[in-house]
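ingest -> validate -> predict -> emit
validate: passed (alphabet ok, no gaps, 343 aa)
predict: started
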Amino acid sequence: MEQTNQQIAEDKRLQREAYVFQIYELVKKIDGWPYLQDDPEAYRTHMENYYYFMVRGIDNPLGYIHKSKVDLCIPDNGWNVDQKNRTATLGGALGFENYTYGELSECLGVTVVYPKHTSPPIPKDTSRSTVYDVNGKVAVDIISPATAIFGVRTFEVHLIISIKLPDYKQKLLIRGLSNKEERQQNPNLAHVRQPDLSVRGIVQRGETPMECALRLLEEQINIHLDEEVKNSVTPCGILTYHMAGTEKEQTASQPKTHYVYELSVSEIKFNSELVKGKGEGLFLVETDWVFKTLKEEQFPPSVTMTWADYFMRNGFIEIQHEEYLDLYARLHRNLAHSFRILR
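emit:
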């Protein structure tokens, strides 16, 4: 017997409800770091396994180092480790009192890449993030692979491009490989092994988030940045959350900040502006495909958080959904509370 339109609509509604619950469970898992305000006892117990990452001259901690990693922080690389107070201070060792910002940054890189000695220098092309204290003061530069080890807050731009079609519908532009089979057949293409957003990357020191978004559009999509495109890049808010662990480092601390943008362009403009050769690993999908891919946990964790925000912001997850308020709270944590020493 054929389904009526009402039955089809109800089936879609139930499917959407199931997707929303699964997205909520994913967000809860990703935003897994305990919060002092929610459960002080659980927070204290959790923090007993971590050392506070300090830099000489800055009062507040910049991150958290798990006790299994603190042996990286040796005096030869400028570290002073206080076992009693559980602090690991860069620049705190004897002989490092007058080290400059740049020299301390080099020491921090050496700690991870060459943990047993202080040379050779870190390769110049290694990507780096700038670490700021709670007041926004630049503290030190860190090579990107080390951000999770030292538990520092990272700042990224995440941008989603929607393509307007002639029938008034739209599709979303995704980077990556579209399914598991493709990714398994292309194991050497590490940078496109998982489906992603349209554009994302680290905000470099000295550039605004909008400047970063425009730079990444050129670098990753290679769309010509005429005035129409620049004026169409729309800020959509800031996401803040705290991941506890990564796939490789289960004890890692990852407080994250995303500056989220959207860009809507016509299909004609997209096809004419996209430079051939840069289009590899790009494909267009509908929102149901993104929901399904989220459910299957194929997106990287930080990308999952941005897609969850996208669906809330665009009305796919609505206030009447039971999970809405907690979802919103988990995507907008007050990370300033995380960076203080608890006694």
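DSSP finds eleven helices and twelve strands in the chain.
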